[in-house]
Each structure stands twice: as structure tokens, then as C-alpha cells.
Design a protein that fits this description.
232 residues, alpha+beta, 2 domains, two-stranded antiparallel sheet, 6 helices, 11% strand, elongated
Length: 232
Amino acid sequence: MEIEIDLRDIKNFSYWAKKAPQKAVRKATALTLNSMAFDLRREYQGRLKRDFVIRQPKLLDAKLRVDKTRLSAPVNKQLAQVGSVKNIASAAHGRFTGWEEQETGKRDERSRTHLPMARPGGNFKKKIRPAVRAKRGRKFIRPSSFGMSGNKKTGSQILGAAKRLKINEPLRIGNLLYKRRGRRFDVVQNLKRKPKQPKRVLWMKTANDRYYRWVKPSITWNKHMKRLLSKP
């Protein structure tokens, strides 16, 4: 009596048992790190909305970013990062610190201050008017542009000269920047006064503490691992 045994299935299973769990561990770890990074990003967005006046809501998507880890990378080299991104001031893009001063207490590096009337109606929740920004290369009108000496700086004299010359460009007198609106000038910027130090608000730490109070990485990893191993 002869019995033929096909060992191909056993060999295939043996190969899967050695290789598949290793791949599943790498993939489950990567999926856990990436999903937690995106969850934290949502926590940051919610915390910033609650704690700050966000004048440009698109910043929450554009400046809070996630760098995902690769699914095929070895476990000890996997890293998913989430955080805010800062801009270096340029002609095309304004300066943006990524809310760093509020989180760390770092000093504001700006050397000038926009005053309330730089915003429409003096409303601090509104964005600064483009016409009053001191962009690089912008030419400001000075009293000498009206043929005035430095001693004649009264508002009525300047207003009269501006109306006669039909000039509506920002007007600089000393360290102050003015913008004509109707029959009066608004002081919109102090070019030599540094902004007040922002109030320290630990938005990132608070979001992290809240997230890890409710989320357990091991549970998330087990969920991904179970799903991967259950695949045919």
C-alpha cells in the first residue's frame, strides 16, 4: 500500500508562518504610528481653535503637518512626526512662527507692531489690511514729499497736502505709519516698537495630555495586527 502526501501546502504554510508575521509587525507598527499622528493633528487643530483667534482657518491644514513613516521600514527605524511648520519671512510669504511663542515662551522676533486700526474697523479678529503692510520695497510718503519741513507734522497740514496731491499711500512720520481714510488719518503701525510678548498657552502639551489620557498605543497596534493576520 502506497500513500502519496503532497507537502506543498505545508511548505507554503511554513514559509508564511516565518515571513508573514514579520511583515505584519512592521506594517501594524507603521499603521499605528501614522494613525496616531493624524489623530494628534486633529487634537492640535481643535485646541488651537479653542485657545486662539484663527484669522485664516486654512492655516490649520497648511501649517499642521504629518510626516508619515514607511510601511516597509524596520520597526526600530519607523518614525511618524506631527507638528507645526514655520515660515521664514519673504516677499511672497509673510513670517509665521507656527504658534511657537505661545507653546515655548520664546520671545517674538518682530521689531514693529501693527496697531488696532491696521485691521478693518479696528477689530482684532480681522486680518490686517494689505494696504497698510510694510512690505519690502514699498515706498512710504513722508512730509518732505509734500514739500514740508520736519517741523510741520500736524495732522491738518498733512491731510490738506495729501488731499491736494491725491495721495493715498501709507504715510510715515518718524516711527509711526499712517493711512488716510476719508478726512482723517489712522495710525496703523509702529515701526520701532516690538510687539508685546504673547501670553503663554501650552496648546500642544495640553492636546498631547488629553489624547494620551484616552488612547492606548498597544490597543491600536493590536487592532491593526489582528486585521492584518486575518487576511487570507
